[in-house]
Amino acid sequence: MIKIKYIITLLIIASTVSIFAQTSISGTIKDSNNKPIEGATVVLNTTSHLYGTTNMDGYFNINNVPTGNYNLIISHLGYKTIETSIEVNANNKTFSYTLQTDLLNLHTVVVTGTFNPRTHIESNTSVSTLTAKDIQQVYPQGTANLLQNIPGTFADASAGEVFTKVYTRGISAAAEDDLGWYYVSLQEDGLPVSLVQHSYYGSDLFHRTDLTTSKVEALRGGSASITAMNAPGGVYNFISRNYTEDLSGEIQLQSGIQGEGNPLYRVDGVLGGALGNDWFFNAGGHYRLDEGARNTDFTFSKGGQFKFNVIKENSSGYLKLYGKYLNDYTNRYNGLAATDWNNPKAAFGLDFNSTALMMPEFHANIPDGRNLNNTNSFDPSQGVHAKDLAFGFDVFQNLGNSWSFKNNMKFSSKSANWQTSISNAFVSISDPTVYALVSYQNPFPAGQIVFRDANSGNELARIDNTGVTSGEPSEYLTAGTLPNDAVMGTSTWYKDNDADEFMQQFTLRKEWENHDLNFGLASGFSDTSVFTQGSFAFSTYENNPRILQVTLENPGEPVMALSDAYGVSNYGALFFTNSRANITQLATFANDRWKLSDNIQLDLGVRFETIKHKGSNDRFAPFTQSGGLDGDENTAYDNNILQPTGEQDAFNYTYNYVSYSTGINYKITDDAALFGRFSKGHKAPELNYYFNNFANVPINKKGEVQDINQVELGLKSNLKDFSFATTLFWSELKNIGVTNFEFDEDTSSIFYTPIQFNTSRTIGLEWESVYTPLEYFAFRFNGVIQNPKATKWFIYDAADSVDTSDDSTTDYSGNTLPSNPKLMFNVVAEYNKNKTASFIKWRYMGKREGNVANAFQLAAYSVFDAGIGYKINSHLSANILATNLLNSDGLANFYGANTFAANANGATSEFIEANPDASFVVVPILPRAILLQLNYKI
Length: 938
Known about the structure:
It is a single chain. Helices cover 6% and strands 55% of the residues. The chain is mainly beta and 938 residues long. It folds into two domains: 2-99, Sandwich (Immunoglobulin-like); 248-423 and 492-650 and 673-937, TonB-dependent receptor, beta-barrel domain (Maltoporin, Chain A, Beta Barrel). Residues 5-20 have low confidence and may be disordered. One of its GO terms (molecular function) is siderophore uptake transmembrane transporter activity. Belongs to the TonB-dependent receptor family.
């Protein structure tokens, strides 16, 4: 009995000791202005499961902490990390720390462009970070618009949220047309948004930024050759918010006006917290209605997305389940007509700030060339309807003995349906082209052509076009006329794109005293298809185009319908693509971070990549039946529908290459480092190579792999009130396949010219810096100065016909590389004191060559953005943002002469000299927009 009492007593004592040996610790984290920092992470030993995050008051609390000595790590994006030793006991349970500002996030851990997370200053790459604060200072006009704030990045958002262009360091040639992300990888949480690119199908279709994004990491060139899938030009990684200990979130209401008063309405929300038993969640998204920056008769963008992640932590790692559902409609702007080659001005009554020059809303049904018993509904107000359903798993585990692994995998199902216009050229009513497009393989419609407003049915104009084929002008037969005596040369652009994808990256890591070895496997699989169909459409050429119903009404003859009731003509006869492909991407990689000394670290990385493209294109031919599809001899619009012949041209090609990159980092001090890197990467062709270049001909050879060589030398420094990072670079791009989009007037057919393989080289200096003369003032300056050259460049001249007997090539070697400014920069002044925050930003875009002939230059322009915000209380704040405050009318792009299917390379010096008064097509930047934001933090 006594022994039992002793045992009970010992158990009680042991239990009491155990209870007293554990405690809770708490404290506050503030900045140098004594303001609380929300969202700071507090960790006790990286191998323990003891951590916390600060709330809106900067307060944190960690429970069940055994007494003892710990290595305390406090970190937050935008502040220098604190790492110190502490003792936790009954008398020492409250801690307070002040975080010093990290002006350029040089002491912040980055995960992009590296296999093992490290601080920016320790990395040997050119990487930049946009914080949540930076993102909130940008008017929400799409991904590319946001990336204009990254130094050294050329980002063209003039078309709107999609159909954008992003590239760096002159690695741009194949990204200047309709594959604007050709060389770079747009990523979400470390994996590409999409594996597939081809004409009018890029990753920006499936990406939107909202409150669920915590930061953006941007890697320019360098280690992208060994860390990204087929993207040697760089990586733009949008990193989602993770969990917080306490339930917290944010709701943001936005309302703005753009251009001539077009409204934007948007709501964003995000919520996260603990679910218990080491489970955490974060979820959010947005929805918007946007009338667009330019004037259209329909809503330009509508829709949104929902994203979530759920995390389960354990003593040695985590498991994260994440997903996204995007369902979004948006559109893209075409170019506008200008005259005066030396000082372009809007022509034909158009306006660079407000004109969209797009087909208005209408609802037509066009026979589907794949099956003429079916029709495709067509409505330009739909734009591009993008859907993306994705979910994935991210696993990290410490295996012990300095081994760990990470595996990130994602499944997605994507679709993009385009219903919009392609081209908006000026076509005179005296130009035979407009009638030839209707009458291909049929008698030319000569005589009295009647144009009616398709909506009202009212006759607008009646002309006699009898003499146009012999060079005589058309004549008006009544008082009615068409605006600018022209119609718009445009096509209904209908595309169905689908892709089911799986991608994965597995990394195994082993750490020694002087080595940090990472090796693994990346894979990607995509099953994709594309269908494209184009029909001519009649509309007026004016600020707000109207759809035209067109007939041929010669006296004594039956009325011939040249268009249907909606103005659509030549059903499905301008474009036809029906293709499918399976893509397999496999890569194995290894990277060693070798510590040569306390101050010198060497990076050695290699990647073997294999990419297989297997698929086929349908051959096609015009539908042949007397009277067309409907059998009616008096309806000319359905006589030439392109449809499959039953034959297919298959392709099955594999591209193998080895990329490598080596870098060195010399740590001068804790706040300064010098780095250098050499990289050799490659770029395999995208699917547009097969889909665009082999219409009705065998695909008898694989595409060329482009080679990218890059050298960079950089210096990073973080001083008390001044920080900077600067990189000198040299880059060379070889085997650039260049082809042009052409129109044959004799056959009314559209084709691509034979590919020419060229080389470019760019030398430049990138920089980003921050200066804070006072605690509440900051000045930021970033940009690039570069010299881009087309060292070897040939352009194929098809002489406006499919016939190759009169073709030639022109040598432009040594000219300046087009679409690359020699200077571009951002200057930002920020004020942040008490409850008020404001900024003003000057973005400068230098002069660019419009084409490789260097015959036309796009002038430099400046854009000013500004914003002011006020924190009403601890939960509520209000902000006003303005972009393009002075309504600058800069020009972002040049598309050549203002004729149907023209291209920039056709505007040579000889052409401009011979046509000084000709109109041409440019793409203006987006006009002024002002936005009111109300933020409520939970």
